[in-house]
Amino acid sequence: GKFAEADMALKKAEEMLELKDVAANHNLKCEIFYFSSERKLMQYAYAGEFAKAVEQFEKNKYTWTRNKMKLRTSYYLLQYYFAAMSHFYLRQYDIALKYLRKIVDEFDDKTRLDFVLFARVLHLLTQFELGNHDLLPYLSKSLQRFMKSRKIERESAELIIKLLRTLARHSTDKKATARIMKLFKADLDKLEH
């Protein structure tokens, strides 16, 4: 469908990795791998093909480790983010958490502030899904401090923080949860317009 042309270009890039001249040039091989493997992972994740995204991440990680590739920091950050996101959507929260902790602990926000922010929001969502509601006040305040110190104003992130804190307080009340979700959806709809 819509990714057919992208697929074709990525296959051509992967075929280039097999060329004798490219295989002999480590830097060129790294650049081609960087481009093609990152795009392939993003393509699967954005298409909602999360099992394929996880498989692509594992393949990418094996390749960069086996070949001792030194790639840009942003490459690793995006790899771990899309792996975490894919595991989250597959409801493999413990695995998602492992990659999110890696991002939060090992990457600074000078690399890709947008993805560091997304990872922190996803970290909060993952802790909620794992039932770690006692961590939510601390993590949400930490996320708010992070956003404030970097002058990030994302209403959607603030809404998610508010939602999770409220849901954690009412986690056993199904009627309250339904009411909270309805209000959240209305707030999100307001943001879109």
Keywords:
193 residues; mainly alpha; 10 helices
What this model shows, in words?
This protein has 193 residues and is mostly helical. Helix content is 79%, strand content 0%. The protein contains ten helices and no strands. It has helices at residues 4-16, 20-24, 26-46, 50-66, 73-89, 93-106, 113-129, 136-149, 155-169, 174-192. α1 packs antiparallel against α3 (26-46), α5 (73-89) packs parallel to α7 and α9 packs antiparallel against α10 (174-192).
Task: Write a compact overview of the structure shown.
79% of the residues lie in helices and 0% in strands.
Number of helices: 10
Strands, total number: 0
- Can you write the helix and strand succession as a string? HHHHHHHHHH
Estimated share of beta-strand residues? under 5%
Silhouette: elongated
Q: What class would the helix/strand composition place it in?
A: mainly alpha
**What value does the Rg take, in angstroms?**
19 Å
**Terminal Cα separation, in Å?**
30 Å
Low-confidence residue ranges: none
Q: Level of helix content?
A: over 70%
Overall pLDDT score: 84
Profile the largest sheet.
none
Task: Itemize the secondary structure elements and their pairings.
Elements lengths: L3 H13 L3 H5 L1 H21 L3 H17 L6 H17 L3 H14 L6 H17 L6 H14 L5 H15 L4 H19 L1
